[in-house]
Amino acid sequence: MYRLAVAVVFLFCALCALGQTRPTSDQLAITLAQQSISALTDGTAINDTTLNANVTSILGADHESGSATLRAKGINESRIDLSLNTSGVRSDVRNVLTSGPAGAWSTNGGPATAYTNHNCWVDAVWFFPELSSLSQTANPNFVFKYIGLTQHGAVNAQHIQIFQWSSQDATIPHLSTMDFYLDPVSSLPLAIDFKVHSDSDMNVDIPVEIGFANYQRVSGVQVPFHIQRMLNGGVVLDATLTSATLNGGLADTLFSLH
Q1: Fewest CB atoms within 10 A around its CB: which of 73, 78, 112, 143?
Q2: 241: buried, middle or exposed (CB in 10 Å: 19+, 13-18, 0-12)?
């Protein structure tokens, strides 16, 4: 009964929202996002990136070490290949199909399993802020909101929220919401928060945080050489970059699994 009630309320809110006009972005949020991209890129155009890293994967009591290659092309395509010392290779891709954003994963070269669509609306390139929603200030489908100067962890941060808007599907703003925490002095991203959801229920929110540290310049671009992915408050992936390559000319075929 509880799940049914939640679903009814969510559907009612969604139907009401369909008649609403697009929310207006906050100019301060847009300015902060632009300052962050400027601090990250120093005006360099970035089409794609390849990051190599040493990683630790943590799933409950299981700790595995290994390596990873993280690739991205534009804001819509990403691929992560983890090679771990016990479980082997896991590949995750995100891309855009004619039906909208999509993704899939596979292990050890096996058949691909598609992500549920409602888990494909947050940023595909969560590991490289230059190719995140921060870069979409000129895109009318993205809405930028200023939350305020807040304390995130032990430090102060400028908090902005970005989501996508659709007049046809009122679930998209919730499913696409990304919270960015920016260093108030350098404007570099300190962390990104978003939600993933149960495959069978988009109303179940599971908090994810990406932490960035140890920024280093690569071809004039600021790259975070330490990246952590946290799920429900616990670290599930810790990556220390060993190299970063920009604009290597990655092919679209990389970002699909068969």
Answers
A1: 112
A2: buried
Q: Cα 35–214–69 angle (5° rounding)?
A: 100
126 φ, ψ to 5°? -75, -15
Helices (H), 99-245: 172-176
Q: How far apart are CA 133 and CA 226, in angstroms?
A: 20
Distance CA 75, CA 35 (A): 18
- Residues ≥6 apart with Cβ < 8 Å to 135: 33, 37, 75
Nearest to 177 by CA among 167, 191, 164: 164
178 strand-pairing partners:
162
Q: Which two tokens stand for residue 63?
A: 């700790």
Q: Where are the domains of the chain?
A: 2-255
CATH superfamily ID and name for 2-255: Lipoprotein localisation LolA/LolB/LppX (2.50.20.10)
**pTM beyond 0.85:** yes
